[in-house]
Every structure is written in C-alpha cells, then in structure tokens.
Amino acid sequence: MKPESRKQEIINAASILFKEKGYSAVTMRDLAKAMGIKAASLYNHIQSKQEILSTIIIELAEEFTTGMNRIVNSNENSIQKLEKIIDLHIDVTLRNADGLASLNSDWMHLEEENLQHFEKMRHDYEENFRNIVRNGVDKEEIKPCNIEIIVFSTLSTLRTLYLWYPKQKDIDAAILKHDMVSVLLKGVV
Amino acid sequence: MKPESRKQEIINAASILFKEKGYSAVTMRDLAKAMGIKAASLYNHIQSKQEILSTIIIELAEEFTTGMNRIVNSNENSIQKLEKIIDLHIDVTLRNADGLASLNSDWMHLEEENLQHFEKMRHDYEENFRNIVRNGVDKEEIKPCNIEIIVFSTLSTLRTLYLWYPKQKDIDAAILKHDMVSVLLKGVV
DNA sequence: GTATAAAACTAACAATCGTTAGTTTTGTTT
DNA sequence: AAACAAAACTAACGATTGTTAGTTTTATAC
User: Fold this and answer.
1) What is B50-186's CATH number, 3.30.470.20, 2.40.10.350, 1.10.357.10, 3.40.640.10?
2) Which is nearest to A85 in space by CA: A155, A182, A175?
3) Per-residue pLDDT at A3
4) CB proximity B75 to A under 8 Å
5) What is the average per-residue pLDDT within B145-159?
6) Using 50, 70 and 90 to split pLDDT, how confident is the model at B4?
7) Shortest Cα distance, chain A CAs vs residue B182, angstroms
C-alpha cells in the first residue's frame, strides 16, 4: 500500500517509453501523456530529461557493480562465480527489465560526469568478468577457448535477457537460472 | 543520371553515425557535416532521412532472409545448419558492421510498410531458427534443453557480434567462426 | 475554515528539427 | 567556349524540442 513517489512513477513510465523508442525519440510531451499530465508538470518532480536517464542507468549500473564485487570477493571457483553472475543478471532483469533497455542502448546519451562514471563501471565489470574466466581457464575448470569470445558471448546473452524474458510468460526464475547455466556453460550439443 | 555512388557514401556515413548515437539522435546537419557539405545538399541524393534508415535496414534484413532460406533448404543436419547460421552472421557482420547497429537498435523507427516488411522477415527468420533447433532436439543431435533459451542465447550473441568484432583487431574470420561454433554449441566447461 | 504545500495547469521562450525553393558552383562533353 | 547536368550553396518554412515563468487546482494539517 505504500505509494511510490511521483518522481519514481515518472521514472518508471520513462523506462517503458525509452525501451520502446529510445531516449532521443521520446519527448517530454510523450512522457507527460503517459502520466496523464502536461509536460510542464513533470518539472515539479524532476529537474530535466537527462536526470531521468541518468537515474535509470546509474542506479542499475551500481547494482551490477555491487553484485560483481560481492562475487569477486567470494571464495568460490570460477564456475560457481559464473553461475553467480548469471543469477545476478537474472535478478536485475526480473526487477527492472525496462530500465535495462536504457542501460544497454542509451548510455551514450549520458552527459559528461555520468557518462564517465558509467563507462568506468562498465569497464571494471567486464574486466572482473574477464579475470574470472581467465582464472577458470588457468585452473582448467574452463575449456581453453578464446577468453574474449567466452566473455563476449556470455555477456551479450545476459545483457539481452531484458528483451527476451518479458515475452516468456510461463517460465519460473529458478528454472530459467538452471537452464541458462546449462546452455551458457555446458553447451547444447 | 542516378547518383548511386554519392548516395551510397551518404548511407555509409549515416550508418556510422546511427551506430554511435542512434537514428533519432542524428540530425541531417550532423550527417551533412560528416559528409563535408550542408544539410540541404543531402537532398540532391536522397529523398528523406527515413529513406536512409530503411535502405540500411531492409537491405541487411533481406541478406539474412536469403541466407537463412538457403540454409533451411539444404540437406544438412541440425548442427551443420547451426554452423551455417553462425557463418552467415559473421559474414554479414564483416561486410557491414555499422549497418547492423541500425538493424538491431533502430528498426522501430521504420515507417508503416517498411516496418511491417521488416517485422515479417525477422519473425520468419526466428521461426526458421527455432525449427532447426527443434528438429535437432527431436533427432537427438542437440541436448533436450529449453528450445527458446537455446534460440535466444545463440541469436543474442550473433546479433551482438557487430559491437564486439570491430574491437578485436587481430582475429581471423576463419578462427572466429571456429571458436564461435565451439563456444556457442559445445559449451565452455 | 483557513493556511500550506504538493501538483497540476496555461502560455510561451529560444533552439533545433527535417525539409523545400531557388540559386550558384563545379565538372564534363561537345 | 557553349551547353548541360551534377552537386553544392543560401535562406527560410512550419513544426517540434526541452524548458521556464507564473497561476490555479487539489489534498492535507491545524
């Protein structure tokens, strides 16, 4: 029963519109119409269109950063860490699939300091991912494939989950996790 | 009489800009500046901004449609067909990585008839992909995993190749094909 | 019931958008 | 050098953009 703040409602509505058409193609009048108010009224709750975008993206990026740091600092082997990464992506996707569209497709429209912050978080995330895979190959827990290809193919699938999962209506999160681990790590042949 | 070459130069420049910022965020003045001319001069060669987008996307979508039809109608088993699909994506990516950004991220900005044509081609492509996987599972050439997850994870990786491949400077196409087959079909563990 | 704050409104701004019209420059052919 | 078309230009259009200012409505607290 606790009502979401009006600002959060706007951000949620914006996430949906940004997912459908992208940040640049969504006007403040589009967003206002989705909220059932006039464009100028939005500014009682938010500072700018840019603030909406950066709120959506930075919050999500920090979730991934926090999650990855927890995984990196855990005492598990490479395979277990990869499974935890898959869990992380599924969890975030379930919680905020709409926002992930902006994180994946509209990050380049962030402005100076937020853009830099985002790019650093993304770089660090990928570097951590790469190190986990590299470590797994060294310890022969993972096949000696091209590390870049493993990271790329796994990450591109996980990053695209937000597009696919909402269309799968009757799939349980636990089953999804299990099957993603199976397909991504163990192959299909 | 027809300025084919200059028109193609414009389309190529547009592909690069669309890749960097997306269709909606690129103005005709941006494109003109990239071409070293004024915005109005673009209209000696193209009819509209929309025409540029539809040319980029529809041409690529038809390449995939043609390629997929060839694969579907061949006398090969499921694994071989999946390998051919991987080849197809790598070939198209090598030939036109920039345009693929529009196909993946800006298709929703196509207008009525082109949008419908694109959506039908994409639907048919995915349906063909799904049938190949389903057939492979039935014949026990492919593990009995969730078919949707296999299609999704494979396709999301192939569709994202355009983002990743240009950054890999010293990787040969043949090696890439081999490794992609290895990672996507045989797993990493 | 009145005061106060939250949240909506109308009206408009300067800037920028895709695009058109009309004109001039450039390059090639005769 | 004259003719002609390709391709550039200047100038501007109507529409739309994000945003601001000032005002009115709505809901809550005393």
Assistant:
1) 1.10.357.10
2) A155
3) 54
4) no
5) 93
6) low
7) 8
Instruction: Give kind and range of the element (H or E) at residue A114.
Output: helix A112-138
B50 alpha carbon, distance to own chain's centre: 18
Please tell me the distance from the alpha carbon of residue B38 to that of residue B21, in angstroms, as a whole number. 20
- What letter represents residue B35's amino acid? M
E strand residue ranges, B97-183:
none
Closest CA to A127 of A101, A102, A148, A96: A148
Q: Is the pLDDT of residue B5 over 90?
A: no
Q: Cα distance from B155 to chain A (closest Cα, Å)?
A: 8
**Would you kindly state where each structural domain of chain B is located, as residue ranges?**
50-186
A40-69 pLDDT, tens digit per residue, is 999 999 999 999 999 999 999 999 999 999
CATH architecture of the domain A48-186 equals Orthogonal Bundle (1.10)
Nucleotide nearest A43, from its CA to each C1': D19
Q: Inform me whether the C-beta atom of residue A87 falls under 8 Å from chain B C-beta atoms.
A: no
Please tell me what DSSP assigns to residue A3: P
pTM here?
0.94
CB atoms within 10 A of CB B175: 12
- Say what percent of chain B tops pLDDT 90: 83
**CB within 7 A of strand C (chain B, 19-78):** 26-30, 39-40, 42-43, 47-50
